[in-house]
Amino acid sequence: MGASPVLDTARFDTVAVDAINAPDFSLAGITPLLCVFGAAAVGVLVEAFAPRNVRHPVQVAVALAGTLGALVACVLLAGTREVTAAQALAVDGAGLFLQATIAGLGALSILLFAERSLDPARSSFVASAAVPAGSARDRELMTAQRVQTEVYPLATFAIAGMMLFTAANDLLIMFVALEVLSLPLYLLAGMARRRRLLSQEAALKYFLLGAFASAFFLYGLALVYGSTGSVQLADIRAAGLEDSTSTLPVIGLGLLIVGLMFKASVAPFHTWTPDVYQGSPTPVTAFMAACTKVAAFGAILRLLYVAFGDSEWTWRPLVYGIAIVSMLVGAVLGLTQTDVKRMLAYSSIAHAGFLLTGVLGLGPGGTGSGLQATMFYLLAYGISTVGVFAVVTLVRDGDGEATHLSQWAGLARRSPLTAAIMTLFLLALAGIPLTSGFIGKFTVFRAAIEQGAWPLVVVALVASAIAAFYYLKLVVLMYFSDPAEDGPTVGVPGLPTTIVLAVTVSATLVLGVVPGAVLELAERAAIFGA
Amino acid sequence: MTLTNYLVLAAVLFTIGAIGVLVRRNAIVVFMCIELMLNSVNLTLVTFARATGTIDGQIIAFFVMVVAAAEVVVGLAIIMSIYRTRRSASVDDANLLKY
Amino acid sequence: MLSNYMPFVGLFVLAAAFALFSVAAAPYVGPRRYNQAKLEAYECGIEPVDQPLTGGRFPVKFYLTAMLFIVFDIEIVFLYPWAVSNEALGVFGLVEMAVFIATVFIAYAYVWRRGGLEWD
Amino acid sequence: MPETLPATGLLSASWLLIALPLLGAAVLLLGGRRTDRWGHLLATGLVAASFVLGVLSVVQLAGLAEESVTVDLFTFIDSGSLDVRAGLLVDPLSAVFLLLITGVGTLIHVYSIGYMAHDPGRRRFFAYLNLFVAAMLVLVLGNSYVALYVGWEGVGLASYLLIAFWYTRPSAATAAKKAFIMNRVGDVGLAIAIFVMFAQLGTTSYEDVFGSVGLLAGGTVTAIGLLLLLGACGKSGQFPLQAWLPDAMEGPTPVSALIHAATMVTAGVYLIARSAPVYDATETARTVVLVIGAVTILIGAVIGCAHDDIKKVLAYSTVSQIGYMFLAVGLGPVGYAAGIAHLVTHGFFKAGLFLGAGSVMHGMGDQVDMRRFGGLATKMKTTFVTFGLGYLALIGFPFLSGYWTKDAIIEAAFDKGGTSGWLLGGVAVLGAGLTAFYMTRLMFMTFFGTPRWEDGVHPHESPPVMTVPMIVLAVGSVAGGFLLTQTFPLVEWLEPVFGPEAEREHVIAPLLVSVLVTAVVAVGVIAAWLLVGRREVPVTAPARVSPVVTAARRNLYADALNESVFMRPGMWLTRALVWVDNRGVDGAVNGLAAGLGGSSSRLGRAQTGFVRSYALGMLGGAVIVTAALLAVAS
């Protein structure tokens, strides 16, 4: 577009009339999305009409049915490649793989939400978020066994938004999905039963910064729309960046990247991450850390490779730099953390950098193994992350979860099994061989090297080494320190958490020892577009 | 009549909004600044819709309004709950989580 | 052409002059006998208090109602474009809108059942 | 390498061999105190099951046409150009180790039931033993150097844990650290060798490496050979990395028997024998193996003469005997089978000797000083007889195990021909004489003469659960050599791995060698009788002795050497760096850690907790991102 667009009323009117047509619609292709959105809507109705005493089991069942149904639907759809809903949604290998990942990890998170035997008050969520923290009513509710069931529809909506995010073939849908996934998360972040001040603060920070980032994304959308005349990724690609002498689409791309990187907690847009991860209820932290990351990277990959795939030399150097900053910030800042959840937040920032390494492993025209490597990494990282936060929910003292590192000293002596499981996840996050993390790192690094990005991989290796230090510090603390006298106890998990731990432990090991099948699956699924 | 003026106005509004987020302390005002940013984008969108002769921009503006409304609901709920606990809506007072 | 409207201008000027005169003259011509009741904002009806009952804050109900209004009001925005291009969209559009309204209705049902529409 | 077949039948379940002991370790470690009562029985049962399965597998293997099968366990990574598979290789060589490890392992588990009966850490002990067996099986059954390395580190870990089993004793903790660090030196060599292979050949599986070893430059092969040798020396306690092994005797005696005598320390021999095609291609590396073997024979034997601690004498004997095995495998095709045969018989008699020593200690209140023994022959008859048979087997008493296997090595050394042949043969014969001397000395000081027991010690025979394994091992010590060299020659069994037995010219007639060795052994025995057996043994070691004895008592100054070569410069370097640090230069000692920690806290200050400063950061980031994109695009 030129610098001074001129109004042309006649053209505007004719185009406007022609543009309105009933879109093609493939219901089959969006079954996974319908499953989850349907479950969310049913969840709202259950909240409205079901009696209080049956709500909890019903809500859990509905949410699980929705997410697992979506998982099954994704599996059944494997191999489908189409673009539907007026070019707004892409049903393709990469999208389905990531949707299945989100649905699966979402189901695990729902199970963590549903855990009722760890907290004496039978839930990690506040009974009534509207009651001011610290008031008499709040203290009364603290011990009452009333449970919050609205978290399930909220989480289901978030999962649906995340799945839509990875399938969006249109910037508008991407924006709507971004909000659909974010808004419930803002609320969930503030719903902790204990330490409510921290939880509310986390929600406030997440909300304000998230809305701020959405505004950037939206402005980027507007600029790209203004310069290309469309928000559909295919049209944007066709318009291209190089043809245009205008700076408009470039600025637009930059702002879109800012919005997405914020969700993926990539430095320098990571500042919210430690605070929010620490303050949120731990099951919600697990959910955000695992699922949001997958969704955000799904969108990043789609934006960069589908919409701007022809002009990758514009954004490649930038992503290169951001990846380095993110890895180093995550690794170095994690060193001095004293809170387990905060430490894991920095770990998440470092992992975002590693994932960007994989994003750069995708060559011109979608060649190279970057896409499948990134998808595998997301799966492996998501599973370990849900697992590691599940362990965090187990270690408790009288005040709820004991997240200060010093409280973890000598944990192996109190509960060898818990310490062993935690160690496994930490090793996986550190990328030690025979865990899923190693294969993940290995594949993304290899993909990057194949594209000639070996300096990036060198930095990544240094960052891994630094980050390994704080993971191992916790391992050493658990095994070789004397437990404190008034240290925390390790709760006996109920069925839901037990299932989560069993699934995540076995998946971490299986993906580390026999990753062949999943790597192959990722390789076959590594396709964008129809 | 050129549409550049509208775009410049929108950009100025966006910047004012962004600066407002940085300098204001009251959470409600910060949030209103964010809404200002969203609305400046709406202005940009309809301007571009005019400029490119497509209606997408106008439709997107509708979507943005809906999303903004939903965001208002969620945001005010969060700010309300924290205000009732702390008796303060200052974002600088919410500073327990750091380093 | 414009002269046809001159009487209106004259009326405005007269009205404004009368209003200004009344306000300006009243303090000088009227008797001044104040009592407590005369200083109240309203001379009859409910006795106002210094602060709102809840200590400087509005009841949350105002806020809730305002929000519900915004959300449901905004949904209407989508009905207009559909109504305009109903013919072009045909049955597909109708079904789509029915689904949309059903979805909004779910939210409505939730608000209703959870007491969001009751003032007390 | 011979053709390998995919596994069929029982052999395809070879992974069970490893999985069973691993399961035991997992159950015992994770099960916690719940398994205290029956854990040791489970552990023993699982190793025994593994042994039975091993025997059946080997029987099946013997029946196959191609005596080498691979079991594809799983494809670790198979994407694009990279194809990493993990699998097991069951061939005659690994079969020998399989039987040795599980067989001796089972016996030692049984013995430990008695030995550790009253130890509060019994469960932990058995868990570690099971872990060790599993790791050792990975080491010998893996079909690639990477698998070997995994097992290699696994046994290292198990060994470390077991040496430090009584970690409350400072000496045990120190010994464990010493073992760990000296092993690391060797492991680094092995790891680099594997990297070199992978970098040069793109593979680490035995089959592919050996198939393409001819394509490598001579220097590269030599480098690989020497690096592998460094790894082997570390694990097997060979010169110059021998010092950790005697200290490792701080661990419980069954550990010394299983790990530090029969199995783990022979992993170095396995590594070199397995890498035969590499060494076949590099004469230089092979010569270094020979030299190290010969030097270690003498060092071990000389130091063994001077120690009074029964377990240390046996430990140095082990060092020396492994020197024989290195010598044998260093000789090339003529020696491989002989080396492995000696390894197996040594596994029997040395394990038996250690168990006997454990039995003596058990009866003497954990005393290890031989000057405090004496006259035990009548008090502990079973121990005496089994220990005596092991002793005779070790010194090479005619027609017992050592006679057959050690003589074969000495013969092969002479047959190398030339000056080097005479030199190596001479060293080997001298070593045999020294062995006879120190072992006879040990026998006299322990079982004969007048009792020199400490007050309150009442020697008694150990329970059957301990003596039965000793008897079994004694039988093996007596008959093993004959069986492996005459009845079922190991040379023929190993032919698929090492090729047919090499034709060789005998420099000296085998019979003559036999007579010569026996004569030298006799001299050693008589010397020991003259110097020790017929005199009264003083309770405290005489202080005024020749410099040779002093040197031997000080382990030929190996520790001093370590101290001056590694520790002193290390400390000097540290001090220098501290000085540099103190001078204010960005410290190099704690520089990295402190630097990272410091920058971490400094950067962490940016995380102020204020929403508005976060927003500022994001806005700044957005500006930079956009500016960067514009800079690139224009």
Structure described in brief:
The complex is a heterotetramer of chains A (530), B (99), C (120) and D (634). Chain B has helices at 4-23, 27-52, 56-86.
Q: Describe it for me?
A:
The complex is a heterotetramer of chains A (530), B (99), C (120) and D (634). Chain A contains 21 helices and 5 strands. With 530 residues, chain A is mainly alpha-helical. Chain A has one domain (27-525). In chain A, strand 3 and strand 4 (400-401) form a beta hairpin. In chain A, helix 14 (340-359) packs antiparallel against helix 19, helix 18 (436-450) packs antiparallel against helix 19 (454-480) and helix 18 crosses helix 20 (495-513). The longest helix of chain A is centred in the middle third of the chain and has 33 residues, at 196-228. Chain A is globular. In chain B, helix 1 (4-23) packs antiparallel against helix 2 and helix 2 runs antiparallel to helix 3 (56-86). Chain B starts with a helix and ends in a 13-residue tail after the last helix. Chain C is mainly α and 120 residues long. Chain C has one domain: Methane Monooxygenase Hydroxylase, Chain G, domain 1 (Up-down Bundle). Chain C contains 5 helices and no strands. Chain C has helices at residues 6-29, 36-39, 60-76, 79-84, 86-113. Chain C is flat and about 75 Å long. Chain C starts with 5 loop residues before the first helix and ends in a 7-residue tail after the last helix. In chain D, strand 2 (69-79) and strand 3 form a beta hairpin. Chain D has helices at 15-31, 39-63, 92-115, 122-141, 145-163, 170-201, 206-212, 218-236, 244-247, 253-262, 267-274, 276-280, 283-306, 310-330, 336-363, 381-395, 401-415, 418-447, 464-487, 490-493, 495-498, 510-533, 547-553, 558-582, 591-604, 611-633, and strands at residues 5-6, 69-79, 82-90. With 634 residues, chain D is mainly alpha-helical. Chains in contact: A-B, A-C, A-D, B-C, B-D. Chain B: It is found in: Cell membrane; Membrane. Chain B: Its EC number is 7.1.1.-. Chain B: It is an enzyme of class 7 (translocase). Chain B: The chain crosses the membrane at residues 6-23, 28-48, 60-83. Chain B: NDH-1 is composed of 14 different subunits. Subunits NuoA, H, J, K, L, M, N constitute the membrane sector of the complex.
